[in-house]
Design brief:
Helix 12 packs parallel to helix 14 (285-302). This protein has 465 residues and is mainly alpha-helical. The protein is flat and about 90 Å long. The protein contains 20 helices and no strands. It has helices at 2-9, 15-22, 31-40, 45-51, 58-63, 70-79, 90-133, 137-168, 172-189, 191-212, 216-222, 235-254, 259-276, 285-302, 309-327, 336-355, 359-376, 386-406, 409-433, 436-460.
Length: 465
């Protein structure tokens, strides 16, 4: 018991805990204790699961996360190989598992599709046997060709299933290898379809990277790189590949630091510009507007690396031009969500422009940015698009903080109060529904605003002499 207590808790004084467990004096041991004992005694996880009190099956628990107990959340998280399970709160585990549940549903749907293909294959083989028995050799050859194609498709579907299974367990690199193998198999069947499948695999890796971090974003870029120089696809299909590759690169840059981050953002801008050469406003309007919007976002972010104010203004001016180009095909009346997103990006870029514009001109830019952000809330409401609403709240907090820093003493407290309200609203949402990246970013801003409020209060205090 002493040795076991040391292995589990690193504390030989916990021998009494072992004794209470052995004698059944602990009705419902903590999952952390069960996990530690299982590991120390080399007991497989499936045996521990079978010893637990009767509970819904794990897939059913995955669909009822709001009612799941802590031990059930931990058991589910261990199946998906989520890191640092015991250190996470119930809310964090539920949020992560809810995202895993959506991946699991896609995974199950693809498995059902594979079952359907197996049924079709059995029918083809039976028909081929009948044709051979009746000496219908032409029909037999045709059916054999279909059997061959069906076998090949089943092989590639199995590769896809293995890749998605790897993603479910957070193994983005293994998933990437499986998707690459599947794409190459598709290429032997239909090279155009292979390109479309690469776009599909990119989306799976990209979404996983955004939700769970890790190497998903890098691998989502890698799977599209072989398509960049390909000339045997339509211009619109190549433009989509370039646009999606650029999206991955831009997100990688945002989440990294140092010279590599700058190089990655420059490549993203280059890929967006290449995509624009392949589409036109007249024939590919929606794609053209999307690329303009994303190019503007990348240019705006790229300006942050400029030490020289004039160079920074050049990038910001290019960004605003790209956003305004996108707005030509994103009117508020017919495309409100797209209009709101691009309008907000214009507002954020105006804020950045104000940071390198002194005096009244800078204040005027901040006022325009604040007005545009407020206008987008007519579309980006808390009920309709909660995540976008939270982002707008965060941006309003940034603008209000900037106005406080530039405004008169009488206006400073008012702007800081507004900034505090905005960031508190955003942070409340990100803590329950946002990923770690957005939580940390909003938390840093909230800390800065609180410090500004404290500094302002101290500045207003006067000691009578």
């Amino acid at each position: 018991m002493r040795d076991l207590a040391i292995n589990v808790w690193n504390d030989e004084g916990r021998k009494a805990s072992i004794s209470r467990l052995e004698n059944g004096h602990v009705a419902n041991p903590a999952a952390r204790t069960v996990q530690g004992l299982a590991q120390a005694l080399d007991i497989p996880q499936h045996e521990i699961d079978s010893l637990r009190a009767p509970a819904p099956s794990l897939p059913l628990q995955l669909e009822g996360l709001s009612n799941a107990r802590r031990d059930q959340l931990e058991a589910l998280a261990s199946r998906f190989e989520i890191d640092q399970v015991f250190e996470k709160s119930d809310a964090e585990l539920r949020s992560l598992l809810d995202k895993k549940a959506s991946e699991y549903r896609i995974y199950k749907r693809r498995l059902h599709e594979l079952d359907g293909r197996m049924g079709e294959l059995a029918e083809l083989k039976a028909a081929a046997r009948e044709a051979a028995a009746e000496l219908k050799f032409d029909e037999y050859e045709s059916l054999l060709r279909q059997v061959d194609e069906s076998y090949s498709e089943m092989v590639v579907r199995a590769k896809e299933a293995r890749a998605r299974n790897a993603l479910l367990r957070g193994r983005a690199n293994d998933a990437y290898e499986g998707f690459v193998s599947a794409a190459e198999t598709w290429r032997s069947l239909d090279h155009v379809h292979s390109m479309r499948k690469r776009l599909e695999y990119h989306r799976a890796l990209f979404d996983h990277g955004l939700r769970f971090g890790g190497s998903g974003l890098e691998r989502s870029a890698d799977i599209l790189r072989p398509t960049v120089g390909a000339g045997d696809y339509t211009a619109q299909l190549r433009a989509r590949a370039l646009q999606n590759l650029a999206n991955a690169l831009a997100n990688i840059s945002i989440r990294s630091e140092g010279p590599a981050s700058l190089t990655t953002m420059d490549e993203a801008i280059e890929r967006y510009e290449e995509a624009l050469l392949l589409v036109s406003i007249d024939h590919d309007g929606d794609v053209w507007a999307m690329v303009q919007q994303n190019l503007g976002a990348a240019l705006s972010l790229r300006a942050n690396w400029c030490d020289d104010a004039n160079a920074r203004r050049v990038f910001l001016g290019r960004a605003i031009d790209a956003f305004r180009a996108a707005l030509r095909l994103r009117p508020r009346e017919s495309k409100p969500l797209e209009w709101a997103m691009t309008t907000q990006n214009v507002a954020v870029t105006l804020l950045e422009m104000a940071n390198v514009t002194p005096g009244k001109d800078g204040l005027m830019l901040l006022g325009r940015a604040e007005k545009m952000l407020q206008e987008t809330l007519s579309v980006r409401s808390r009920d309709a698009v909660p995540f976008d609403w939270a982002l707008t709240q965060e941006n309003l907090a940034i603008v209000s903080k900037a106005l406080a820093e530039r405004g008169s003493a009488s206006e400073r407290a008012r702007h800081l109060a507004s900034a505090s309200g905005y960031i508190d609203a955003a942070l409340k949402f990100f803590r329950t529904e946002g990923d770690t990246f957005y939580q940390e970013k909003a938390t840093r801003l909230a800390t800065e605003i609180r410090q500004s409020v404290l500094d302002n209060d101290v500045g207003r205090i006067r000691v009578e002499e």
